[in-house]
Design goal:
This protein is of the alpha/beta class. The relative contact order is 0.17. α3 packs across α11. An eight-stranded mixed beta sheet has the order 2-9-8-7-6-3-4-5, with helices on both faces. A four-stranded antiparallel beta sheet has the order 10-11-14-13. The chain has two domains: about 140 residues, Aspartate Aminotransferase, domain 1 (Alpha-Beta Complex), CATH 3.90.1150.10; about 240 residues, Type I PLP-dependent aspartate aminotransferase-like (Major domain) (Aspartate Aminotransferase, domain 2), CATH 3.40.640. The structure holds pyridoxal-5'-phosphate. The site of pyridoxal-5'-phosphate has 14 residues, from α6.
């Protein structure tokens, strides 16, 4: 058969290394620091089983029918109330739509705003799922370096000054994927100020914000947005379950309306049963206490991982100190290609994610890599970090 000529939009897209690594994860004995999921022991399976049974017994017609594209009304109201509690009330003229995960909110926003060749400024490193969504619309990505307290806003300003066609700034300001870094309050204010001066939107992606285990809350950029400039994306993936695929978008109504039409041609509406399950869970299962417990568990595992690094890693390997979320970011330095390092780790039955996946510029070689601390057991965290330490020492690092 002849080769398929794929559309220009997608022909250079590569599967995310993270999703690829899922395949290796089924190997027996593998220790995975590669995924991005909450700890499996925190999934509210028993509650969701009871809820699903109740929905199918008592509300089957609603659950099994088509729903409206904007989402299940009670869940919209609950999500708005949760956001308001976090200081994210939305402005007059904002509205919220439920999406199939935060990923779809990012993709549909891109679809609604980006013409081929338009620019998106994004953190370097950033979330591969978003970067690939941007690439699939032939956006030009403008990397902005990350600092210890979030993106380098001075560099962002230079990028915006030099490139007229940038449409929005993509940021994950809280417990960033992949770095675990949180943007300081001062930088959040400057970010809003810079975006206003250059007349660009901010796409604030915040799936991890509720998973703080140390330090003080920093308000979402959206909570300080007085001019409907921030397009806010959230998700129930990291707080309830990623498999249910429920996220949301809060943005000015004209944009949300366009996203709604884009969603109609994509999947009509998000899975109604899943939305009803999340709604009932939020209503009757003390979800906040469970989210807090899950964050505490993550914090314990993160501390253990960092202690193990202290013990087993050579001294010159840098790593971030997240105050929440699911990831930390290490750098081997010295020109090591972390893709090769990840392959060596896999030979030792430890899965990690090379930082290469998180580079807006795919040709950039990086010595950095991402570790997830929520999924492995405490025993495997120690075993896995010890094994990584041995691989690192193989590079002659002390
Ligand atoms: C920064 C970030 N944004 C968005 C998502 C998408 O999550 P979901 O589509 O499951 O809501 C993820 C998932 O890993 C993420 O890390």
């Amino acid at each position: 058969m002849e080769n398929i000529e794929f559309a220009d939009r997608v022909k250079d897209l590569r599967g995310s290394a993270i999703r690829e690594s899922f395949k290796a994860l089924s190997r027996p004995g593998i220790i995975s620091f590669a995924g991005g999921m909450p700890a499996p022991e925190t999934y509210p399976a028993a509650e969701l089983a009871r809820i699903a049974d109740d929905i199918l017994t008592n509300h089957a017609v609603t659950a099994l029918q088509y729903g409206i594209t904007e989402g299940y009304a009670p869940l919209i109201a609950q999500t708005e109330a949760r956001l308001a509690k976090a200081g994210i009330a939305g402005n007059r003229g904002d509205s919220l739509i439920i999406t199939s995960g935060g990923q779809q909110a990012i993709e549909l926003t891109t679809k609604a705003l980006i013409n081929e060749g338009d620019g998106i400024a994004c953190e370097d490193p950033s979330f591969v799922g978003a970067l690939n969504a941007f690439r699939s619309y032939n956006a030009r990505l403008y990397p902005v370096p990350m600092e210890r307290d979030g993106m380098d806003v001075g560099a962002l300003e230079r990028v915006l000054a030099e490139n007229q066609r940038i449409k929005f700034i993509y940021t994950i300001p809280t417990f960033q994927n992949p770095s675990g870094i949180t943007m300081s309050l001062e930088k959040r204010k400057r970010l809003l100020d810079v975006a206003a001066r250059y007349g660009v939107f901010i796409l604030e992606d915040n799936p991890y914000g509720e998973l703080r285990f140390a330090g003080e809350d920093v308000p979402a950029v959206k909570s300080m947005d007085r001019e409907n400039r921030v397009i806010y994306v959230g998700s129930y993936s990291k707080t309830v379950s990623p498999g249910l695929r429920v996220g949301f978008l809060l943005a000015r109504s004209d944009l949300t309306e366009k996203v709604t039409v884009c969603k109609q041609v994509s999947d009509v509406h998000s899975n109604l049963m899943a939305q009803m399950m999340i709604s009932a869970y939020l209503d009757g299962c003390d979800a906040d206490a469970r989210i807090a417990a899950s964050a505490r568990l993550n914090g314990k595992k993160c501390a253990l991982m960092r202690d193990c690094m202290e013990e087993y890693f050579p001294g010159n390997i840098t790593r971030t100190a997240p105050e929440g979320g699911l990831f930390l970011w290490c750098d081997l330095g010295g020109g090591v290609d972390s893709r090769e390092f990840a392959a060596k780790c896999l030979e030792q039955n430890v899965a990690i994610v090379s930082g290469a996946a998180a580079m807006p510029d795919t040709s950039k070689i990086t010595s950095a890599f991402r570790l997830n601390f929520s999924m492995a057991s405490e025993e495997n965290i120690e075993k896995g970090i010890k094994a990584l330490g041995e691989v690192i020492k193989g590079y002659g690092k002390r």
